[in-house]
Amino acid sequence: MEKIYLIIALSPLVGAVIAGFFGTMLGKTTTHTLTILGLLLSTVLSLYVFNYHVLERGEVFNQNLYTWIQINNLNISVGFLIDNLTAVMLVVVSFISLMVHIYTIGYMYNDVGYTKFFSYISLFTFSMFILIMSNNFMQLFFGWEAVGLVSYLLIGFWHHKERAVQANLKAFLVNRVGDFGFLLGISLVLVFSGSLDYTEVFLSLEKTIDQQLWGLDLITVICLLLFVGAMGKSAQVPLHVWLPGSMEGPTPISALIHAATMVTAGIFMVSRMSPMFELSDIALTVVMVVGAITALFMGLLGIVQNDIKKVVAYSTLSQLGYMTVALGVSAYSVAIFHLMTHAFFKALLFLVAGSVIVAMNHQQDIRKMGGLRKKMPITYWTGLIGTLALIGFPGFSGFYSKDMIIEAVYFSSLSYSSWVYVVVVVGVFVTSFYSLRMFFLVFHGKSRVDVHTAKHLHESVSSIIFPLIVLAIPSLMIGYLTIEFMLFNGWLDNAITVASSHISMAKLKYEFHSAASMIPHAIQTLPFWMMIGGIAIAWLFSIYKVQWANWVQKKYYRTNYVLESLYGFDRFNDLIFVNGVKKLGNFLYKVSDTSLIDKLLVNGSTKVILLVGKILRLIQTGYVYHYAFLMIFSLLIILTWVLFTGENPLFEL
Amino acid sequence: MGISLLSLLIWLPIFSGVLVIFIGNDRANIARWVSLILSILIFVISLSLYTSFDSSTHLMQFVEKSSWISQFNINYHIGVDGISVPLIILTTFSTILVIIAGWEVVTKRCSHYMAAFLMMEGLIIGVFSSLDAILFYVFWEASLIPMLLIIGIWGGVNRVYASIKFFLYTFLGSVFMLLSIIYMYNKGGSFAIIDMHNLKLSFTEQSYIFWAFFMAFAVKVPMFPMHTWLPDAHVQAPTGGSVILAAIMLKMGGYGFFRFSLPIIPDASLEFSEIIIILSLISIVYIGFIALVQRDIKKLIAYSSISHMGFVTLGIFTLFLSYKQDIIEGSLLGLEGAMVQMISHGFISAAMFLVVGVLYDRLHSREISTYGGVINTMPKFTGFVILFAMANVGLPGTSGFVGEFMVILGAIQANIWYGVLSASTLIIGAAYTLWMVKRVFFGVITNPAVSMLKDINVREFSILAVLAIVVLVIGLYPQPVIELMHISIEHLLHQALTSKL
């Protein structure tokens, strides 16, 4: 098996290296064929691994490949841990990456950086594999940073766009703030356990009992620090600010990196660390609350956005919030379940958005679209499936995962969980409102497309359409098909630990009968009607009475202002962090470094030496009469001294 | 056994330098080729030092000893252990780079330029292999002279100020070192460094010696607040000078702490370790903020060097606080992390200064505002720059990560706040490096001169490619480097933890 895992991880790397170094030489067709073949291989083998581990219940594979560093008893290695969690992630990542690779052919064909783009997305896939297959914290951090690097490169892919290179710098730095916490968390893990290997760390968790740091339990501090890392990567408030900006990158990577895979790395990581998080209710509560805030408030921002990609981006933020809430209530498998369904339908939605953008000649403003349904039927239908999955329409994949999250919160015994329950239910309304608003504005109603674009408006090419169709299938069905196995039949049991005091999952299992029976049950519950309400309001405002939307905006202009200024996070960061740090840097440079240390101390001391030299030079003139005068003058002083005190100072020397 | 390996490594470069001077500036091309071939030969010889080195013992190897000034018992006494071998290889490697880097660029007194670097190579290898304190001191001071000349002759507009500042600063520091060496000779009757390791010293004596050594080494590293010579020196130095300065000369300071401070005066080192740690943390954080606001690319990288070298001193001096109940991994992480950081910084800073050199050769400007959108005309070059920038930022997979990671892991075992402050470089380092990259390389071209730029040629490509490979290999597989030094470091740790009182 070891060889199979290696091939899964390395074949995209080989593709990336070939595309990167020889891409221009090989030409477009050869490059994309090679990278896609590499990904295809990974995908097929991932399915095989999934079958072996999850379906046939094969043994967990945990082995080091080579020693990275060895210092006495401390061994930090590169190695693989393949259990069911990894297997599920492998399938999701490789499958979506494969689809995005194919999609890229159509989307990027006329771009000068075509082969480079393929190199990057293959490199990304490799990094993501390394992240999810890791069996230790060092390698996790490697993958973590490597996906960040590729994200940085891809957001700034169109490097002539000032906004793009601004956004990629911002993305990297905000992620680094998260990584700062993450690295400290990892370091503290080493402090108490003396190891960075997952298994060894989890086995030595009892050593943390009774240890305190900063007035909290050590384990709480560690979990919170690790979660700061997750907040950066998975864009939780207040470290979410980079994700909307990342939409400056080409759409395929928005689907792959900034919706389906990389941003869920934080969710994956916390699930992986479930044995640790389970020991700290404080950490779990923080996780849950942060997730809830993100879920609701980022969703609200989706309502006022007019850029098609930005709407989907805020929806991603909100959905990541939902996953985080699930982590907080110890429903890790539900979080992974939502991660999976979300990966399919959100990748689909982004690719749909990309299809629309190409057709619209890179116009992204949804106010200038409308009525695209007839011109782009396949994009329309797949987009509808994605949208219904996102809002959790009964039967669609998102329905199962989101309903389970809401239920899990309902059953949670954590403090504040009842508040969070209200938030996630209201979130359903918000999700449904902004999703359908976008959907209606783009595909229904009267066409607001400008005449020139309208003439050429047509369905996208087959390499774009194919991934849409392929992704629509799991968006529709994967929830129905897998919910029972994934949540209640122990697919993820060998990777996830839940303490017996956290009862959400147990209660969910007790209440669950079958996937089919969830649908009639759901219709009698509040979230369903919230969703219907969202659809209705969206229809009202964007199709039936468009002027009402304007009226509401004017009437509640203060609220509207708050939303449109994105709660002021960016302004705050610019003011305090960007300018503050620049000012501090300038102050330190000019005042402390240049004036104080260099001018005063360093050059000052040379000046003092020069001055002393000058004075000394005065008395060494070389004239005999100067010296004679000095001698006589000195003698006079000494004689006076002797006369008046009766002591001879020279004898005492 | 004929002429021994280590002596060959010291004297071959020096005599090569003399030879190259005699070739003369008129026959520049011959001088270039001879220098290159000789420097490669020296590098190959230094590799055989590595292959025949036995990393399972902490004892000095390739030892040679013959009397030099017998009245004072001063000997020509050299030898190496796992701490000096990597630094010697770093030296021979970097010398090849600077000779290639100066190939077409240096037209003024070309043979002298090459000769200066070759001689400096020999002298620095002398520093890293001396086992006699006076011999060490002689090499230490002598290595200043070629650098002084390099900055003073081939430097920028303000070169005289910079070179004198450089010379006085470092010279002042080392005078105190000489005093303490003589003091210890008076007490123990030997200039052998190994004898000094075993010399009994009272705490007061140790304290004085500690600060004397500190003056010498901290200036070299350089540590806050003795760092202000470095940005000036770098800005004025020619590219090759900057490369050697950053890649090797700074390491002499770190090496001094390893070879002298820790084993000779362990109690004082323990006593004052917190002060050094605080200065190191200031170096890391404070200098990071200063780097952020630089407008001159080279100055920015110079400040970044100081910040990165802060990890070296931090790693060294946290050793006293990070071992607990006989668990020494924490201390070893710090010490070995400091060594890895020195080696890695050698490659990365060399690469960064070469990058600036490539730009400077083309537009004769180091101002960030001159550039912008360089990626459009120099895509290959920008690819390398992004890699080295990421290494500078300490991205895992590059050598820059290994040392910082180890030092942070060690530091946090000493005190959580050391970890917090040093880890802040994750953010600050990324900010100043990538903001510079953004302004210089990305965006649209605003300066017409940038649109005329030609991408790197084969010569530049090959230097950067070699460095890129080294940076990646060490990042992905640092264990061989660790293995090479491990036993020596462990022995050193034992010495540092054994009180002399």
Automatic annotation (TrEMBL), chain A:
Coiled coil: none annotated. Its main location: membrane. Residues 68-118 form the NADH-Ubiquinone oxidoreductase (complex I) chain 5 N-terminal domain. Gene3D superfamilies: 1.20.5.2700. It is a multi-pass membrane protein. Keywords: Membrane, Transmembrane, Transmembrane helix. One of its GO terms (biological process) is electron transport coupled proton transport. The chain crosses the membrane at residues 6-27, 34-55, 85-105, 117-134, 140-159, 171-193, 213-232, 253-270, 282-304, 311-337, 343-360, 380-399, 419-443, 464-483, 526-546, 624-644. InterPro entries: NADHpl_OxRdtase_5_subgr (IPR018393), ND/Mrp_TM (IPR001750), NU5C-like (IPR003945), Proton_antipo_N (IPR001516). Residues 134-429 form the NADH:quinone oxidoreductase/Mrp antiporter transmembrane domain. One of its GO terms (molecular function) is NADH dehydrogenase activity. This is NADH-quinone oxidoreductase subunit L. It comes from Candidatus Vesicomyosocius endoextente.
TrEMBL record, chain B:
Residues 35-120 form the NADH:ubiquinone oxidoreductase chain 4 N-terminal domain. InterPro entries: NADH4_N, NADH_Q_OxRdtase_chainM/4, NADH_UbQ_OxRdtase, ND/Mrp_TM. It is a multi-pass membrane protein. GO terms for biological process: ATP synthesis coupled electron transport; electron transport coupled proton transport. The chain crosses the membrane at residues 6-23, 30-50, 83-103, 110-128, 134-154, 166-185, 208-230, 242-260, 272-293, 300-322, 342-360, 381-410, 416-437, 458-477. Residues 131-424 form the NADH:quinone oxidoreductase/Mrp antiporter transmembrane domain. Keywords: Membrane, NAD, Oxidoreductase, Translocase, Transmembrane, Transmembrane helix. GO terms for molecular function: NADH dehydrogenase (ubiquinone) activity; NADH dehydrogenase activity; ubiquinone binding. It comes from the Bacteria. Pfam families: Oxidored_q5_N, Proton_antipo_M. It is found in: Endomembrane system; Membrane. One of its GO terms (cellular component) is endomembrane system. Belongs to the complex I subunit 4 family. NCBIfam families: NDH_I_M, PRK05846.1-3, PRK05846.1-5. This is NADH-quinone oxidoreductase subunit M. It comes from Candidatus Vesicomyosocius endoextente. The lineage of its organism: Bacteria, Pseudomonadati, Pseudomonadota, Gammaproteobacteria, Candidatus Pseudothioglobaceae.
